[in-house]
């Protein structure tokens, strides 16, 4: 018998769905989280990164040896750096210079080249520079913000996994919104199976900075975003997201980033309004890529 051994790309997806035990308190609701930090490069972004490159290859848009360019705040960049390493592409990543040292180091470890813009320029400036470099013929922008292969990864993977793992009992899905690929793809799949499932998106309150998610100005709103696929949008304060993030580590043993803390905080809010609900929130990544920020310090 010939054994078929998997490649690292085969290990993207099929992440665990686990029940929260202590944070929910006394409740008739079931609160579940999907551990996307278990993907090979450590975040939910492994799914769209691999999807965008693989499906572009199948269309003949790119081929190994080409240069790819992407603006990123961190997780997508790490995932794309991994996918480019697997498939043999030169990867140029453009990101704000206030991203954590761990994120930058992870990208370069996979062989990607980094270009930093200022904190003030932010993701909008990074996206503008990526487009400029493409116009100058320096590479091809995958554009996670407008690329349908981003939500398609979640329509084909994350959504079906959640449906199967909950036995179709899910009533509410909660996700932070950055590129919005996760919430768009999962919403499409779950609504096809069960239209009454409630889709809840999370964005930072005005003045709050939550890594990986944004309150986009209208002109930079991701083109893949369709507001009709989201039933409710929750505004989250940075301090509440950080507090729940720390509590997840200390009370549940789930070590994750701030946007994941925000998603669970939103789920806890919802739980106080509901009975007998089955809720799923996305844990986007692992907490180890935020350690240098001091956000987990004891004080």
Automatic annotation (TrEMBL):
InterPro entries on file: Cys_synth, Cys_Synth/Cystath_Beta-Synth, CysM, P-phosphate_BS, TrpB-like_PALP, TrpB-like_PALP_sf
Catalytic activity reported: O-acetyl-L-serine + hydrogen sulfide = L-cysteine + acetate
Keywords, in A-Z order: Amino-acid biosynthesis, Cysteine biosynthesis, Pyridoxal phosphate, Transferase
EC number(s) recorded for this UniProt protein: 2.5.1.47
Pfam family for this entry, one: PALP
GO molecular function, one term: cysteine synthase activity
Annotated PANTHER family: CYSTATHIONINE BETA-SYNTHASE
Protein's name in the database: Cysteine synthase
Lineage of source species: Bacteria, Pseudomonadati, Pseudomonadota, Gammaproteobacteria, Pseudomonadales
